[in-house]
Amino acid sequence: MTETVDTAPSSNGGSRRRKGATEASRGLHLERVFTTAGVHPYDEVSWERRDVVMTNWRDGTVNFEQRGVEFPSTWSVNATNIVTSKYFRGAVGSPTRESSLRQIIDRVVGTYTRAGDVHGYFTADTDREVFEHELTWMLLHQVFSFNSPVWFNVGTQSPQQVSACFILSVDDTMDSILNWYREEGLIFKGGSGAGLNLSRIRSSKELLSSGGTASGPVSFMRGADASAGTIKSGGATRRAAKMVVLDVDHPDIAEFVETKAREEHKVRALRDAGFDMDLGGEDIVSVQYQNANNSVRVSDEFMRAVEATTDEGAAFGLRGRQNGEVVETVDARELFDKITTAAWECADPGIQYDDTINDWHTCPESGRINASNPCSEYMHLDNSSCNLASLNLLKFLSPEGVFDAPQFAKAVEFVITAMDISICFADFPTEPIAKTTRDFRQLGIGYANLGALLMATGHAYDSAGGRSLAAAITSLMNGVAYRRSAELAGVVGPYEGYARNADAHKRVIRKHAAANDQIRSMGSNDSATLKLATSVWAQTIALGEQHGYRNAQASVLAPTGTIGLMMDCDTTGVEPDLALVKFKKLVGGGSMQIVNQTVPRALKSLGYQGEQVEAIVEFIAENGHVIDAPGLRREHYEVFDCAMGARSIAPMGHVRMMAAVQPFISGAISKTVNMPEDATVADVAEIYTQGWKYGLKALAIYRDNCKVGQPLSASNKNHGVSSADQSGAAAAAPVAAATPVVTGPVRRRLPKKRPSQTVSFTVGGAEGYLTTGSYPDDGLGEVFIKLGKQGSTLAGVMDAFSIAVSVGLQYGIPLESYVAKFTNLRFEPAGMTDDPDVRIATSVMDYLFRRIALDYLPTDSRAELGIFSAEERSAQVSNTYGSGTTSDVLEEMRSSVDATPVVRPAVETGGVADHGAQPGAAAGSVNDPGVAPKSASTVAAPLGRAGSSTELLELVIGKSADAPLCFTCGTKMRPSGACYVCEGCGSTSGCS
Length: 992
Fold this sequence. Notes:
Elements: E1 47-55, E2 62-72, H1 77-87, H2 101-118, H3 125-140, E3 144-146, H4 148-153, E4 165-167, H5 174-189, E5 193-197, H6 217-234, E6 242-247, H7 253-272, E7 292-298, H8 300-306, E8 315-319, E9 326-331, H9 332-346, E10 350-353, H10 354-359, E11 384-392, H11 405-425, H12 431-440, E12 443-448, H13 450-456, H14 464-492, H15 498-517, H16 524-547, H17 561-566, E13 581-585, E14 591-595, H18 598-605, H19 610-623, H20 651-661, E15 672-675, H21 681-693, E16 698-703, H22 715-718, H23 726-738, E17 756-763, E18 766-774, E19 780-786, H24 793-810, H25 815-822, E20 831-835, E21 838-841, H26 844-856, H27 859-865, H28 870-881, H29 885-897, E22 911-914, H30 936-940, H31 949-957, E23 974-976, E24 979-981
Parallel strand pairs: 4-5, 5-6, 6-7, 7-10, 11-12, 15-16
Antiparallel strand pairs: 1-2, 1-22, 3-11, 4-11, 8-9, 10-16, 13-14, 17-18, 18-19, 20-21, 23-24
Helix pairs in contact: 2-3, 2-11, 3-11, 5-6, 7-9, 8-9, 9-21, 11-14, 13-18, 14-15, 14-16, 14-20, 15-16, 18-19, 19-29, 25-26
Enzyme class: oxidoreductase
GO molecular function, one term: cobalt ion binding
Family: Belongs to the ribonucleoside diphosphate reductase class-2 family.
């Protein structure tokens, strides 16, 4: 008779291994967390049928349509759109097309459950049922999501590719280089991204065996870039995403660093010559190297040389690839300046800290970590892959503001188990990747909605309390993931490469646990979470000593772009909130502006009462920020700081948050540090230096408006044509395209006698006069600015500036260009003005060009720039809210957070509509809690042509945001980690 012995405690629904039992009885014993025995998760929710009709925001054409799809009534329009258009399998319109969320969850969860059963993960049939029900419940209630390839491929006739992240390798042979092109193509075809390090390829300063000079890695990047661009154009799932890394001691490093910056110079020259260089424009295809993110792999030796106080100490050797000998000695500070200057100019290259990365490497005996995936969160062996899944942190926050750490830990256990099971049945694009992934079983569990969680609990993103809570949660997640990995090792064995790397792997686990001990709690949530994490790490170390680990790595922090929308997350990955106002699609069709639902939760957490909350929310709805909000204490302003807007988080605030969570991530963090347009090269250098000192593994920056090839809005081409006239503009496009290109600028001088006007003004106490002259047939032609005493230096500078602008106008430079460039400049004098249309100015230039825009630009053009007269602003508020500003906004917000959605009739206006309403019920009825009292079109009208939260934010702050337009639907995308995501259709520019 065999004796059953528990080898470890089963806290948080943990597993037990039955010692002495037969092999067939080994497996996990699982306990229910979210579900009830005898009740299927589908029976606990209310289902409804909806129509999904998705249109291109720019021209109104329908790019996707599927009617009668089935979703829970609690799922938003956006989540319904994304899942239906992206993840339902089968030809649209065919009987085999999926039409219900139940079908895709069953397809995926059923495959995972069967594989877990076959491979011995469950002790009994009851454990298999618990696993299936718990996974189903969490997906159904948007508690977590697998990465996109799982939804694309699992349970279909396609290869079962489950990984979003791949790392390739390339050697210094032509066969290997050509194979690199092939492997990338196969990965792109499957909807994933890949990265690799080109440092093995000999430099252009070295010789070939034949005696000729080598081409160097940068030349081979051209071919790979062209390949990625072609597959991107023809792919059915997403754009290609890739990462190219080069070591800082490679002799071609300077050429690599400046590659994309030189292309950016070319873009500017071609644009100024009249070519269409917008992203997706006809002529942008001539630009090279744009399909990859570039990163420099720097060493501690290099960074110490950069900081050296003597020229001798700053000397750094570039080494040949064949023999490792120094072929050239450079000044490390000069090379670092080239890196930071290029990043300042075009956001590339990013930086990866080689020694830090490899110090946290669990498998050094099997090879170094040389590269990363496209978004820099997955870092492990060459020719490997990683499948991702992310948890929605806000789902674990109670209405009282308490983070449920024990329940979070239980959810992590189920998710990490499912992720490991997927490797048992997964297909891979190449045999080397398949072997490495099966031998090391790399996983990437992570989370989304951190920014929303911090705000909802009353924490500023850039605060010690916010960082403490983020660190505690991340530590708990990683500790539980590795504990379950050790439990799995006891059930189905450790990964194949573990025995060789056991000492190194256990050393890294101890490093994680030691970092956990350094967290200092500052509140009840992080204190409770940290206490549990400390206990978990002790169990993890003990179980690892006994069984080893099933997975070479467990966690990453991914962008969570598309899957973040699928889970209805307010924020993605580790990011803060984008802005306090949001562009929300309505169930009856159309859209409206709404204050983010996290804001009232935050105000309640901070102790504000109902009436105070309503007043503050109303203020935010009208102004887009909290500055001078009625009743809001100034010490609470920082809680509502966002990535963009009036109170944007400082760049170092992003770096500090990354540093807080990095010690608890097996891989790295996909995140871009946003910097203002006026940031300097020195600011970039400081960010990159501090990233090294803080112990980050990778870092990338983006400076506003540093890239030409990212269109600010569609009106750049339409020159102010309103959205209502888009069809007419499109029809006229061929005529415009046929217009002969003028080979040289032609000056159109003003006549001797021309109409003019003079405006007196004061800005921050400084007085001046603006005189403008125009052509008789309309159109501004000259500007004169009087500021300061006659003969003063300032007066002379303003005279020269006026002449330069006037000549530019006469040579045909659009006034819109000047207005876009000179508004929002910040310098003294600034402040209040005496102009009722421009009450506050950030500088004299800001005021002058706002005034000029109001006098000479049409309303549509000004709307694109966020410039309105006082009368126009009043009309917008009146048209949008009438006399019920507070109630209108709060009613829509409450419907999003609390109200049970009412089933509504299908409409033909696009978006999602519901079937089954009572006869005669009208969408948008006053009695309908899910739709604003006004019609959708009326609500949306004051927003101009806003089609996403990014475009809405532009109208609020009066400044265009750098973000590409979605290739699928034309909506302006928003940042998501190191990538961009489209709120309209869910498309991303990278992995998720």
